[in-house]
Amino acid sequence: TDLKIIGLVSPHTNQNITSRFSHTLNMENSKFQLIEKLQEIVGKDKKQKHDNELLLSKREVEILRNLVLGLTNQDVANKLFLSVHTVMTHRKKITRKLGIKTVSGLTVYAIMNNIIDIREAERSV
After folding, report:
1. How far apart are CA 23 and CA 105, in angstroms?
2. Exposed / middle / buried, residue 96 (Cβ in 10 Å: 0-12, 13-18, 19+)
3. How many whole angstroms separate alpha carbon 54 and alpha carbon 52?
4. Are 22 and 41 in contact (CB under 8 A)?
């Protein structure tokens, strides 16, 4: 794999520290600029999108999308006509497949993989 070490730095960060990262993000940039830079660094191409589609089922992507937009397990169950138990099972599978346990981590994943747009995420906060 192509390991990328990304540092979140300020313009005043010592060069000795910034030189340790393969890429840096300026903490004074807007959320949109940070996401754009992250996407540029990780190289969003069609192959990666296809791989992500294979990683999660369509239903898991649908559930992930709703969860990161702020819906509770019960809300998702009601919206998709599922039981809460089914939503929780899908959620466990999603976290196991992605290795991401927090909603904030899942949100970053969803933004980086074009499952949601950053503007949608902002509206849900």
Report:
1. 20
2. exposed
3. 5
4. no
